[in-house]
Design a protein that fits this description.
Oligomer: homodimer
Shape of chain A: elongated
Order of helices and strands of chain A: EHEHEHEHEHEEEHEHHHHH
Number of helices of chain A: 11
Radius of gyration of chain A: 21 Å
Distance between the termini of chain A: 34 Å
Largest sheet of chain A: 6 strands, parallel
Largest interface: A-B, 88 and 88 residues
Strand content of chain A: 5-15%
Strand order of the largest sheet of chain A: 3-2-1-4-5-6
Helix content of chain A: 40-55%
Number of strands of chain A: 9
């Protein structure tokens, strides 16, 4: 399938990200269908004109007509969906997803998937601290990264198709990593940071702190507003990598603490020089 | 001394914060003098019109004319300055500071200070990741907190004077804490967060991460660009409180890690619900 303007695209799971995909694809002129478990979600999306058709049940016709299917479901639900409904897919199509963990999803899906349909996984690294289609907005992609995570089973054509999707949606940077590289990276830059923010907010129930809080604390805890169902599932699915990243962080945090205990100014300063130098990399791009 | 418009105010130490005070006070119509160790700082401040007079040495006349003195020096330098030059102060004036740690500074200064001059300490909780008078900007105060930290030695009049200074400079919230309450609060909301950001940046030297970094990581490490001289001094001066806060954080981080190891979804979810609920407090104000 190519990205031609009369393609019909089905989005399964119309939350914040699925809804934002729908908005972007509609804006580009595609026909967009959606399946959601919630009627009010479908109603809202229809009223807003971000989908052409929607259903709360899996209508075989809707699936059969789709030239591409994008899954915005929780990982476990995603696997169940494929097992239950893949017989309806049009032969030869590509399907993709938006799941935040790859190793434990991609291989499982590819294993159970029909041979005449190709699953090419992707992770749009965009989000907000709010949820649902009502908060969807395809502008969240503009400054964000999009990672395609192919396996040996994927064809070059599917990889290119999936990269095109990221480019069409306006992502700032589209790149390719193996599922394993992806999970290690995400364990560090995304999951570990959420663990830190959650832990920080659990340290005290002192309401008065709000009065004395500067930007630092606000910045470090913005992501402490978290969807506990989704994130605990994501943490579990990347358990080994995340535990490894947590250990690495605790080692560095413990090193800094040790320097402070010993009043080792040179040790603390060296860590601060390193952090200053490395943080500058992130300001350049 | 009252805040009358022909007051002459001396700022000792013309860095980011001292320079921002100078800009704000000049804008309000005060005569502003400055002492800095750097001639180029003085030259720049004069050219920009943010001070009326400046010197790289401690000119007795400049100190004698000042109706108020604001210290923007590192804590140790501040103490030395008082020991060396306090004989020049005009009798009866108030002096204040911008130091980020209080317990280990305020009592020492008050102990050595002349009886006819009153030191009322304050902490303007504003900053940037860049330094020096060239980056100064009094608009950084507009959304920030200002904390006055009196001791038993301070008079009501001096406390009110110091609060007025914060209000004049445009701080969003002006409040009063004891030096001990201040240091505990700051150990948590400011110093601990800087320790986390520094540790996080020390975890890996992988340049490629920049390509896969979302807002979470950027937010959590913004403050990893850090002035190592100033911050290691601040950490040491608040050593006991900061170590206590680091322990509390490690306990919570370890708790989350334990839940993940045990695949205890309910434990993780509960911490996430707590963090979500508490983070909302910080969005209201």
């Amino acid at each position: 399938m190519k990205w031609i303007s009369d393609s019909e695209i089905l989005i399964v799971g119309l939350g914040l990200i699925g809804g934002s995909y729908a908005r972007g694809l509609k804006r580009l002129g595609y026909k967009v269908y959606a399946i959601s478990h919630s009627q009010s979600t479908i109603d809202y999306a229809l009223e807003e004109g971000i989908i052409d058709k929607g259903s709360i049940s899996v209508e075989p016709e809707m699936v059969k007509n789709a030239d591409a299917v994008i899954f915005g479901l929780y990982p476990e639900t995603f696997k169940e969906w494929i097992a239950n409904y893949q017989q309806y897919f049009k032969p030869g199509i590509y399907i993709t997803d938006v799941t935040g963990v790859k190793g434990s999803v991609v291989y499982d899906i590819q294993k159970i998937l029909r041979e005449d349909v190709e699953f090419i996984a992707a992770h749009p690294m965009a989000g907000k601290e709010v949820y649902g289609v009502r908060n969807s907005d395809d502008r969240i992609f503009l400054n964000a990264n999009y990672i395609v995570t192919p396996t040996d089973k994927n064809t070059e054509a599917a990889i290119e198709w999936c990269k095109s999707l990221g480019k069409l949606l306006g992502f700032k940077r589209v790149s390719v990593l193996s599922p394993e590289e992806h999970d290690e990276t995400i364990g560090f830059v995304s999951q570990l940071t959420h663990c830190i923010a959650v832990s920080l907010m659990n340290c005290t129930d002192n309401h008065n702190l709000v009065d004395y809080t500067g930007d630092s604390f606000r910045d470090l805890t913005r992501i402490a507003r978290i969807n506990e169902k989704m994130w605990s599932e994501l943490f579990l699915m990347n358990k080994e990598q995340l535990l490894k990243q947590m250990d690495i962080f605790m080692e560095q945090f413990g090193r800094l603490k040790g320097y402070l205990e010993d009043e080792n100014v040179e040790g603390m300063s060296e860590m601060m020089r390193t952090s200053t130098e490395r943080r500058a990399w992130f300001d350049k791009k």
